[in-house]
Structure formats: C-alpha cells, structure tokens
Amino acid sequence: MEDTIAAVATPPGEGGIAVIRISGPAAFSLASLFFRPSKPKDLNREPGHTVHHGEWVDEKEEAVDTVLLSLFRAPHSYTGEDVAEVSCHGGILLSRRILEILFRAGARPAEPGEFTKRAFLHGKMDLTQVEAVLDLIRARSDASLRAAARQLQGGLSRKIDSLKEELLKVTAHLEAGLDFPDERLETDSEEDCLRQMEQVGQEIRLLLAGFERGARLREGVLTVIVGRPNVGKSSLLNALLQRDRALVSELPGTTRDALEEEVQVGGVGLRLVDTAGISGHARDPLERLGVERTRQYMKEGDFFLFLLDGSEDWRPEDEALLAEIRGKDFLPVINKADLPQKLNFKKLEPYFNGSRPPRISCQTGEGIPELEKRISERLQTKNILQESATLTRLRHKQTLENCLAALERARETGVKNLSPELALADLRYSLASLRELVGEIYSEDLLDVIFREFCIGK
Asked: Which residue segment(s) compose the domain that 75 sits in?
C-alpha cells in the first residue's frame, strides 16, 4: 500500500486514446517529473478533479507525446489515494514508453485488479461492489448490465446491512439478559427474538431463491435448440445471431457436436446452443457422441426452443423429444413456413393457452422478429429482469447458506428453551457470515481469489 503503482487502464491495441493510471503517495510527484504543462504550474498544489494540458517528456527532456493529465486527490479518487491519469494518443508502443519512464522513476507495475483492491482496502467499496465492477466490465446483456450497476450502487450491500442490523438487535438483547440477569432491562421478549430471527431467515431464503436468476443474468440463459435431424436448428442459430456461424446443409446429421454462442434477445443474454439432432439410429461413433452431448445439454438447459418442420407431418422422433423436455421450460417453434404446411400441431396446444406457436422461415427470415418477441416474453415470466438485490456469485450463495444454517440452529435452541449461550454462539456466526459477504472481515486468500479475475489496469 505504500508503493506507487502504474498501469495502462485502457484496452491494449491501437485507438484514439490510451490512459495510464498512477496511484499512490508519489503519484503527483512522479507525474511532475515528466509532465510539462502548457502554462507554468505546481501540480502538487493543484486541486483534485482538474485536467491539465501539456507535454510528456523522458529523462532527457525529449518530448514523448502531447497529453492531458487528470488529478484526483485522496480520498476523493477511485482508489482513495492520490491518482494521476495520463491520457495520451492510443498505441501500444507509446503507452508502453510512458509506463517504462514511470517504472524507471520508481513506480511499480500494478498487479491484476490492484487499483480496485486498493479502493476496497481504503473503504471506497465493499466486496460485493468489487465483484460488481467485474460484472459490469463483463456484462453480456442489458439486463446483466443493469444488475451489475445496481450492485455497484450498493443494492445488495444495503440489504445485507439491514439483515446485520436486525441480527445485532437480537444478539444485543440476548447478551444483555445474560450479563445482567438481576437487572430490569428493557429487552425484547423471547418470542420477539424468535420472531425477528424467523423474519431475517425468511429474507435470506428469498435472496437464496434468486441465486439462479442472478447467475443467468451474469452468465446468460442457457437456451438449447432441440429437434430431430434436418429441421433447421443450425439455420435458426444463424438467424438469431444474424450471421453464418453454423454449417448448414440439406443432408441430415450435418451437426455432429453442440455449438454454443452468445446473443441478446429482449435485453437478456442467451447462451444459445445448436445441438446435434436426435434420431432413433446413430450412424457412427462420432454421431453417437454428438447425441450424448445433446442429451447433456437437455439436462442442464434453462430454456429450450423445440424446433419442428412445418412442411412435414408429426413424426415419432418429434414425439420422443417432446417426452424428454416435457416438464421443462420450452417454446415450440415451427420452421419452414415458406413451404406448404402439413404439420398438425394439436399436440402442442396445451403449451400455448389458446395461442399458436410461432411460425418462422430460417430461409427467408419470416417470423424471426416475432420469435424473438415470444422468447423475450417467456423469459420475462422467469423473473430474470426483476429489479431487486440479486446474488450473482457462488460465494454469495455459500456464505448466506452458512449464515442461514447457523440462524436456524439459534432459533431452534430458543424454541427448545436450551442455554442462551448456545443461541448466541450461532447468532455471532451468522453475523460473521454477513460481515464476510461484504468484506468487513476477510482473508488474503479470499482477496486473491476475487482479484485474480481482474485485468491489469483495473
């Protein structure tokens, strides 16, 4: 923390601009060594949140580039330290040269995520907000972007703080009763404490119930296209991606393995999977492996597009596939609307509540916008776009599960009129779990795991 660190904060490669971030106690003095302002000034006396025009020079006073220097004074900066940011023309060689000048002058290369780690250690954000920074950078859809923004603004943090406050009240009442048994203190009754514990437990259960929704927001809804061979699954993948990604052929069995791509529909990210068609007879070992991979995706999928050929009658293979996905969340889709229609879709009527399945033509593009609308509507019913505090990471889920288990033990102790010391031990563990979730208590190993995912410069 006493070192002054530096790194390129913008993506590598050529571009209009590159930003080199310097953070630490010597940030301003290091910048002063090589920044020559257009108008004479002492950077160490300039206020924070100001931008200055000038030239960047090397140790020999040779000009390197015309730059803008932005100053942010502690604690009102991203890291909570003095921060200087050099905005130069984009280019790998130019930004690297400015960095090398800083390193020779005493700055240290920043480690992955070290700027954000310093922000956490200086109390600028808690651990859930740190993770939201990474989710914001990696957002794959409008919905995941909004969820990450809510978490960065403290949506989950405020919820956890509220739960901590309730548990602290219960803990304080129990401790007061134990420490001053002969005093007539105004403490809650045992029934009130049990009621508060149950209420907190219920709120934690609601958060845990939303974990799958949060995971889908962050990673995308695993959407599997299923159907018998040659119904147009690869063509549908290409149509939704709006580019030719999968190989398409009139010969059945062209797709031998699953192909996964990302696409956004209705603001929600989809992990869209084109699978090998399932038929009653696999012709070779490779095709059998493709069918096995399809069945694995059918077990793991969140949502299914059940594709049928509208130009042919219902087949036993369609019936078998319907039996496999019955009970799962799926949307039947009738392809080849540009050909004479022969399919009787009465078997599908129970899944539409009187409405008809979307008809499309991957060949002409007919019906694709309507299909996207129907997919969006179905995803809305899964509450994926719900505006609320959401658990997005397995760490959140596991920590809250530990918290809930200890809280339930504490409540059971109270119900059975056992020793209050036992209930207090479990309550303290629950509180420690909540504090660990937001990073009030942490281990270096935990920080290493979290910040390992970050890029250098963030």
From this structure: 5-126
